[in-house]
Fold:
Amino acid sequence: MKSRVQIYDTVLASVFVAMLLLAAFAVAPAAAQEVLPSWNDGAAKTRILDFVKATTTENGEGYVAPDDRIAVFDNDGTLWSEQPVYNQLAFVFDRIKALSPEHPEWKSKDPFKSVLSGNLAAVVQSGPKGLVDLLTVTHSGMTTDQFSKIVADWFATARHPKTGKPYDEMTYLPMRELLDYLRANGFKTFIVSGGGVEFMRPMTEKMYGIPPEQVVGSTITTEYAIVGDVPVLRRLPKLDFVDDGKGKPSGINKFIGRKPIFVAGNSDGDYEMLRWVTAAKGPRFAMIVHHTDADREVAYDRKSAVGKLDKALDEAERRNWLVVDMKSDWKKVFAFEK
Amino acid sequence: MKSRVQIYDTVLASVFVAMLLLAAFAVAPAAAQEVLPSWNDGAAKTRILDFVKATTTENGEGYVAPDDRIAVFDNDGTLWSEQPVYNQLAFVFDRIKALSPEHPEWKSKDPFKSVLSGNLAAVVQSGPKGLVDLLTVTHSGMTTDQFSKIVADWFATARHPKTGKPYDEMTYLPMRELLDYLRANGFKTFIVSGGGVEFMRPMTEKMYGIPPEQVVGSTITTEYAIVGDVPVLRRLPKLDFVDDGKGKPSGINKFIGRKPIFVAGNSDGDYEMLRWVTAAKGPRFAMIVHHTDADREVAYDRKSAVGKLDKALDEAERRNWLVVDMKSDWKKVFAFEK
Structure:
């Protein structure tokens, strides 16, 4: 039989082991996990880390209270790929094809004709008007619930033409790590995209950990209606708000209602947002994702029909916006890379 | 000198005391604090507690994951007073008076004339068109930053005509407790009001613990502009979205992007929102604040020019919406009551 001392020794040892395990568990996630592992060490990563450290160091000069740590991200070309065409446009093309049997007139009418014949360059060249026509036809006439299902079904089956991957895997791993890192430091992350808000919302939680209510985008007008005693929202063929270019600051103001302290974009469509955010008083951080990697993704900027980056690139240095060079700053672009 | 056993006794006793203290601390906040203390015990309070218990009990039949615990609240007449006129209208009247020296023509032109002469009944009777005129004149022409300051300054100085209290104290204590209670149970609380979103946002965190990005309301069109190399948003004399009546489901869909499971309103302006939310599958809770207390507040419903409650009251029983009787269900209406 054990003595009382022996029993106490055993009990105390167990308590201490348990406490050590608890302590180890409490610090393990932070200690074991490298910050921004898919970013190469260098100026870009350092600037991001320095900003987060400054804004989260209590009593520091650049401290920002957690409630004000609003971070906004463009989506196309910033969080996920936008080449060869915006993913939402690939959705539109697929929907046009699926709906074409009901619309024989489309065979001789642009931009529908170009979509059906697979002439994507001609579609892109049809400009905003043509795109609006395509968006309206494919994005209206159904209820909001029906549209969400159409979107989710498309993501489940459609594949990216170059990589063959589902579109929800076409996200940039370093940017997802950046979202996680900011959230771990008390930032609230939002998408502010020119894309349709109801095209993004069914997928953003899974893709980025961003819930529907933190997605700002372009909107279509919806109308309350009773169908067989059931209230629904019908999507009307009428654009409500275009959250791009000069619209982005208005979108942030309307949906979020305060100025972000961190903003990320990749094209001239983000220029006004970058300007508006960084002109505000207090610490502000702006970054541009520069598509420089023709091997792992696509290299494009000033002359691209999709995601043109020209004016914002010129002004980045003058305004101290970080330009992230995908080729040299990122170890990996996509999670599925070997 | 103490024996090893005595030392162990002491150490172990300390460890156990510490563990007991920690355990007590962990449960103390819930145990010590009464739930919804300004609500009388009765059917209304019980129904609320039962719904929250059911939706938060894991593995229970009515369990709802925390991410989906979206709760939306009308503001005027639901979270704060709306009598004798909407608080935002009191703001409008004060602004019209402040701006009138620059507009001599208002002296002979309704609805401005009625405002300046203090004929509030005539102003209310001027209907939506007159109200829009007043809102446009007082809510546009400045930048968003300037407007926020005008609003904050007004709240700092204006007083309610009946109580003499600042408007940010005209909130219903039981409803603030309900907001706190829902948040403590993992709900995310939003305002969905017909009021102007930029009139509410400067105050909602302080009044209700609701941050600006969780305030849905009516919006005015804003325009990005550069003023002396500084980007600003100008508020244009153009209504963008009216978040009232049939607009409320659209507002929820646009700004939040998913269906709430808890909804509170007080007037027919909330009817479609109540209908749309409760028609969705899964557990849903709807409540109507019925203004029945002429002593502590104001008694009004079917015939009131402000906050008319008629159709929604008729349908409440049939649709199993909770009707809260302010007089009998609330111990206190305002925090400042003795």
Remarks:
- The longest strand of chain B covers residues 215-227.
